Amino acid sequence: MQPIHNDDPRQSVANIKSGIVAGLVAMAREAGIGCEGWFAGLRLGPAEFDGDTPVYLSYRQTCQIIRRAIRTLPGRGPGLVLGERQNIGHFGLLGLAMLTAPRFAEALQLGVHYAPITGAMMELQLDADGGDDLGMVAIMRSPDPELEPFLCEELFASCLMLCRGLLGADFRPTVLELAYPAPDYADDYARVFDCAIRFDCPRNRVVIDARWLHTAMPAGNAASAQHVLALCDEQMPAGQARSEIVAVVERLLLQRLADNPRLVDIAAALHLTERTLRRQLQAAQTSFSELHDRVRSESARALLGDQKLSIANVGAAVGFKDAREFRRAFKRWTGVAPREMRTQG
After folding, report:
1. How far apart are CA 84 and CA 339, in angstroms?
2. Which of 103, 111, 276, 284 is the most buried (most CB within 10 A)?
């Protein structure tokens, strides 16, 4: 697995779910600290992380926000604090997929493979290391000594909470190895992980005793697992992921869909000229009209699943004042009429 370097264009692909940033925003509010400055220059703000709809960020954006956050938040070890707050529910479909696996060993394999759908900031690998115990290695996408402790703390602490949700409160790793020097709050690591902690190691790795690997999962079910894994596959980052500007425009379109926003409206919201926004979208191999139609089409198909909404109501929700115009546009997008799509669903 090759690490992502600072000049790698993949750092600007908006494919990281924003759970970590949302958690940091919540911590700032609890501490009574303003966090608007974390988002300066990123076309984002803390209010966007309040809802249930996930915001997708690029690795570059997320690192910039985290760096500003850890310089601002009070206390020590914000990654440990954030990781300890997680539970199996925070892992969504992945948590369910791991629950329905036959044994914990298979659950771990699923966890590593599908980690991208959770917003993981580090690359994960399983490492048997020639013995019966199993290690999970965390690799930074791009070397960053300032961020490494936070990312490791959040990752390993949240994974610990997930494993305890799967196996019970008695679960604990054998050893946690970390590639950075011991911080001045190293005692907190021992409290959280309740295992041997080693700093200045060659890599970041947690080791799990072999006896846990054969533990049967409490909800192991092959049929359920197959269904959940299909849903996980759908959420895995696509080969042609969205750029930062595409993600931002899509988000603004969703927020204003009923008002049928124009290019000039979205450009103004981003403090860009129409020409600049058009050029940036062209560089991302798309256009405003293409994005607008895609967002309207996806939203309309989702809304058609609600039988209480009339076709006209669905059309109005995605920016059409005339129901006939909506029906024509929907058939152009999907090849079928809205009523036919509803019948098929």
Report:
1. 47
2. 111
